[in-house]
Amino acid sequence: MIVAIDGPAGSGKSAVGRRVAAALGLPFIDSGLLYRAVGARALESGIDLDDADALTELAASIRVEVDGETVRIDGQDYTGKVHQPELSVAASRVARVPGVRRAVVDQLRAMASGDVVMAGRDIGTVVFPEAEHKFYLTASLEERARRRVAQLAARGERPDAEALEAEIEERDRRDSQRAVAPMRPAGDAVVLDTEGLDLEAVVRRVLEQVRRRGGPPDPAEPTARPPATGGILAPRRPRDLPVHDPGRPVPELYGLMRFLVRLLARVYLAGGLLHVSGLEHVPRSGPLVVCANHTSTVDPPLVPAFLPRPDSWSMAKAELLARPGFGAWVLRHYHAFPVIRHTPDRRALRRAAEILRAGGVLVLYPEGTRVGSGGLREAEPGAGFIARTTGVPVLPVTLTGTRECFPKGSWLPRRVRVEIRYGPPLRIRERRPDGRRVENQEAADAIMLAIAEQLPPDARGAYADLVSLRERLRGVWEPVSRPPAAAGDRG
Ligand code: DC
């Protein structure tokens, strides 16, 4: 019997896997240790972590033995080394290299020999797609970072919580966006949201599920328990993660709330600090995807507030809407709907398609998260997928100054110049004029290029090289001719 337990950093997959293996009497293998071992050796030998050839050669030439938490490379003990925090990043970087993955996957398959519980990120999808039992553990970034802090604190370390959260976020992103074997739940995996659950509870759920699906019976329990339903045992796909839904928002409230946000912004930034431009570019009816850069908590309220479209809906990270309470109520009424980030969340995609089919506006942030560093970061492919497959106009929006206005951790906004620019819309093509298919990432990059072109050079980050981006993305997008302004529109 093979039990695959996948999930992002800090989701608890190794701790859970170890306990589950012990309960089932199976060996346990933490596959991350092998990538960590390759990373450790690479750092030691001074190999550049971007040098795919050297890393491939290295991975194929070393012999890694894993015995519980003990790791040996070519017979030498590396246990202390591989568990060091800097190895997390090195492991994630070497794990992007296809040759490294091939070598590690071969080793993992050889080590498993039939019955095993294995934890990782691609066990259910790549290493053992035929595994009888597949789990994908999730939890919010904040919770996962908290767990890591507690784990390190228990070892006597005092990690910087904020830096650790940023590191995990970056690692999630790298692991889920790499070209080979990206981290994602297998189609037939049970997705377990472990938010707020302790280790015991998660282990219990996994074991219940294994036994329910024909695994060995629990010797301590002669009569089988009724199968667990609902709760965190979300059947199969991330779209079934529990999300609090109090029903449809009261329609008039959205207009009122947007008005209040505009009022607040104008009053607070009175004296010429607030600049809103480009409203003439916004089509007043018909489906539209609005894509903005995101550097501050105040961006999601501001973008739809000044957009002259009452039929707009914003994608928001599911964590924000997952718990009932006033915050979630406000977000719902501000037309936010949940997306589980870094996954192809089908429910969110379906909802997005419905909004556009109904002729509404979909507001999203292609970078997938708020970027505190100031410059743009590489987009996730999701926005590109939506723009490419629906073919609706995409309106690039840029916000400048909001990060300085409301920096992370501050309670009150600062009075600084804030600019919101609604740019001319573009359309993503399904194919280039020469017939080549447009990839989702290219589509997302084309949107980011339009955003970058509207930003000052020092805010363009990963999209600073406009010249080569324009070259690479030629034919991916086309301009949309300006719609005739409706009577009474002043822009
Ligand atoms: O779970 P971990 O921290 O031990 O894993 C370290 C890195 O190794 C992780 O960021 C990505 C990589 N990894 C992987 O790509 N595939 C796996 N099955 C396990 C780990």
Describe the protein:
This protein is of the alpha/beta class. The protein folds into 2 domains: 2-234, Rossmann fold, CATH 3.40.50; 251-479, Glycerol-3-phosphate (1)-acyltransferase (3-Layer(aba) Sandwich). 41% of the residues lie in helices and 15% in strands. The chain has helices at residues 13-24, 32-44, 52-61, 79-82, 85-94, 98-112, 123-127, 141-154, 161-177, 199-212, 251-268, 299-306, 318-321, 326-333, 346-357, 381-390, 402-405, 440-454, 466-472, and strands spanning 2-6, 28-30, 64-67, 70-73, 76-77, 116-120, 133-138, 190-193, 233-234, 274-277, 288-292, 312-317, 336-339, 361-364, 394-400, 418-422, 426-428, 477-479. The chain has a 7-stranded mixed sheet, sandwiched between helices. The radius of gyration is 24 Å and the shape is globular. The termini are far apart. Residues 218-247 and 484-491 have low confidence and may be disordered. Bound molecules: 2'-deoxycytidine-5'-monophosphate.
CATH architecture of the largest domain: 3-Layer(aba) Sandwich
Low-confidence sequence ranges: 218-247, 484-491
Largest sheet, order of strands side by side?
10-16-15-11-14-12-13
Number of helices: 19
For this structure, the CATH topology of the largest domain is Rossmann fold
Provide the CATH superfamily of the largest domain: P-loop containing nucleotide triphosphate hydrolases
Radius of gyration: 24 Å
- Total discrete domains: 2
**Total E-strand runs:** 18
Termini separation comes to: 64 Å
Mean pLDDT: 87
Structural class: alpha/beta
**Main sheet specs:** 7 strands, mixed
Please identify the top-level CATH class of the largest domain: Alpha Beta
Helix content: 40-55%
Beta strand %: 15-25%
